[in-house]
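name: query_chain
kind: protein
chains: 1
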Amino acid sequence: MDKRNGKNKFKALIILSLLLIGIACKDKNQTEIVYLKDREGMFKKWDELFPSYEIINSEFPPSHFFLALSSKGNFFLYNRKEEKIVLFDFRWNYVKEIAKKGEGPGEFQIPFPVWLDRKDNLYVNDIGKRVISLYSSPDYKFSGQFRVKSHISKAFIDPDGHFITFSLYNTPFLIKKYDRNGKILKETFKCKDEILRIFMARFNPGGMANLEDKGFLFVYPDRYEIYFYDYALNLQKIYKVKSFSKFYPVSPDFPQELSPYEISSEHSKWWDQFLHPCDIYILKGKFFMVSLLKSEGIGGTYYINFHDLKGKTYARGLEVPFKGKILWVMDDFIYVLEEERFGEGDNIVPAKLHRYQLKKDL
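structure:
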């Protein structure tokens, strides 16, 4: 009897161990759902959340398009008139030309998107050539090219030097991870509505933000849900809302009578009915901010929602000042571009660059 009881106990221990291992594995691979909750004492005004302000440039260089901002405060711009990528220092002094349009090494056809790694090396994706060119800091000389097999709308470099990219033009998987030889290591995320994806791809690229050494946040523009992936492209968390609303939008079904390949006044009327999650930004390594666009014909108004990584909401539906758009976010600073506009008579009021700082005691 004692031997039989001993065997039964041993079997029971094995079964219990296997169950515990199974539960641990399930918990490890399970995606956490975090519902966004309002903080007590929500910020109702932009300057309450971002009280520190200064104007960086009262006359943004004409015919220049902002590309990126280095950790030293240097600006990378695209000169649309001369079709060159140029560098300005933090005092807005011209420094040098980095690259120009052409067919040779280090030259480009259509430079988009552009991003920096943690060492301030500059990466330029060329839509025309389907290559990524590297210009190494600090002198930003051309250092090499990488070929990729898909479109890129958003991208960053992970700690192992791999490219993580996103584009609504990639099917069936929208997020891809490449090595330096252009080999796809992994891919993930399929859209739920293919017709809606086709239409959105031309107007809203969605958003992706690198959370240093932890993973990245991703927002697909059809609804207000934020996905947190690790660098291995495992989905760790989804930030959700209990119910959709004006500033927590969800796209209605694309009209069956319209073609997603066309654009008309009826398309615009439908598109202008709801706000669109556009991009996502990390602040101080513990907050994330989502920008939303209320489209109005060819223009529109931008708003932001502000949350921490635990799912607490600090602000919802704050309008970006000066009818501006967010160009860049670095640590606790936000750069807002006030677009050029027509003034009195035929005068053109030049574009201006503004900088705001997050409230320090958050």
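note: The first strand starts at residue 32 and ends at 35.
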